[in-house]
Amino acid sequence: MTRPSRTSLRLRLLVPLLVLLLVGLAGAPLLSSVVMTRHFDERAQNRLVATSRTVGGLLSGRPAVSIPEERLASVAVPGGLLLVGLDEDGDVVFEVDRRDQASAGTGEEELLAEVLGARVGEAVDPEVDGTSYAAMRTLTPGLTVDTADRGSLGVSQVVVAIDRSDDQAVVREVRRAGVAFAVVAMVVLGVLAAWTIGRGLRPLTAMVQLADDAATDGGGGGFRTATERSAPELERLGAALTGAFEARAQAEEAVRDFTLDASHELRTPLTSLSGWLDLYAQGGLADPHELERAMERMESEVGRMRLLVDELDLLARMDQGLPLELEDLRLEPVLAGIVDDARVVDPGRPIALEVTGDPDVHADRRRLEQLVGNLVGNALHHTPEGTPIEVRAESGPSAATVSVVDHGPGFATDDLERVFERFHRVESVRRESGSGLGLAIVRAIADAHGGTATASTTPGGGATVTVRLPTVSKPSGRP
C-alpha cells in the first residue's frame, strides 16, 4: 500500500517553479557561453588559415624564394599571434611574437613540441602555462629569410599559434555573471513566488478552517465568502463546497425528519397494541367478545405496521436501484383492471376510464400496477363518498401520460410541491389513517422508469396527479 505524500501543496507548487526558474536563468548564460566559445573557435581557425595562406602565398609556387625578415614580420600584424620559422633540423630560424607582455617569450618549446607532434595542416589546441592556443604548422620548402645580421636562413616549415586567452576570459566572465545573476534572481523570485503562492492558497486555508468548524459544530456555509475576489477556480470550488455542505445539511435534516415521522407512524400502532395488552394483563378482557374485538384491533395495528415497513423497504430498495422487469405493455388493459378493482371496493363510486390513442409503455407490470393503484386508492380514501374519479391515459411522441383526477378537497398551493415527500400529509387528511408514503412510492416508481410525477389542482376543485412514462417505439406499419 502506497503511503500518502505529506508534502504540502505550497511546497509542491514552489519546488517545480524554482526548478524551472533555475533551468531558465542558469541555462541562458551557459547556452550563450557555448555559442560564444564556438564563435571564438571559428574565428581562431579562420585566423590560422588566413595566416598560413598568407605565408604560402609568399612562395607563389616557386621552388626558392628569399624574403626579408621585415616583410615576413609584417605578416604577423594581428595581436595575440606567434609566428615561428624552423629549418630542416627543427631549429628556430626566426620568431615573430605579437602576444601580450605576460605571455611573450614564454612557453615556445612546449608549444612547438605540441604542434610538431601533429600532422601538417592540422589545427590543434595546446595549453601551455595556463594559456590556450590555436596552432598549425605549414611546410615551406625552398623559403629563405634574409636577416640583417645572420644573412640568408633556410626555413622548411612555419608554425602559427594564436593566443586564445582573451576569448576564454570573455567566456568565463559571461558564465560567472550569468551564474551570479541566476543566484540573485532565484532568491528574489523564490521569495516572491512563495509569497504569491501563499496568498493564492489563503482561501484554501480558510476553507480548511471552515471544514474543521463544520465537522465540530455543523457549520460550513461560508465557503463562497472565503473565496470572494479569488481566482475563478477557487470561487467555483467554494461554491461547490458550499453546495455540498448545504446538501449534506438538507440530507441530515431530511433523515432527522424521516426518523421522526417513521417513529411517529410506528408509535401509534405500538401504543394501541401496548394498551390492549395491558388491558388483557389486568384482566379487563375476560368477556370472550371483548377479547375477540381486542384481537381484531391488534391484528389491524400489526397489519398497519407491516404495511409501513413494507413501504419503507420498497422505498429503500428503489433508492438503491431496485431491478425492474421491463417489458412492452399496453396501458389500457392495465388501467382497466385497476379501475375494475376500485369499482368492486367502492361500488357506489363513479369511476371513469378515458384512453386516447394507443399508449404503450416500457415498464415493469407489477410496479406500474402499484403506481396506478396507489393513485386510485388515494383518491378513494381522501375524497367524500360518491365523488367522481377519472383515470385518463394519453399517448405522446416520447411519453405516455397517466392522470388520476378527483373532485374532492384537493391540495393547497403550499402542498403541491411537497405531496410526494415521504410522510407528508396535507392538512385535510392529516388525521386520517395511512402511512403518508403512497405518493412518495408513486414518484420513486416513476423515477425508476425514467419518468416524472407531478401534482396539480383540478379545475373546479380537487386534485390531479399526472405520471409520464417512456413510450415504446412502434415499428412502421403498426396501427
TrEMBL record:
Predominant subcellular localization, coarse grouping: membrane
Stored CDD domains: HATPase, HisKA
EC number: 2.7.13.3
Catalytic activities: ATP + protein L-histidine = ADP + protein N-phospho-L-histidine
SUPFAM superfamilies from the UniProt entry: ATPase domain of HSP90 chaperone/DNA topoisomerase II/histidine kinase (SSF55874), Homodimeric domain of signal transducing histidine kinase (SSF47384)
Cellular compartments annotated: Cell membrane
Keywords per UniProt: Kinase, Membrane, Phosphoprotein, Transferase, Transmembrane, Transmembrane helix, Two-component regulatory system
Transmembrane segment boundaries: 177-197
Domain of life of the native organism: Bacteria
Record domain Histidine kinase: where: 261-473
Any one GO molecular-function label of the UniProt entry: kinase activity
UniProt protein name: histidine kinase
Source organism (scientific name): Nocardioides mangrovi
Lineage: Bacteria, Bacillati, Actinomycetota, Actinomycetes, Propionibacteriales
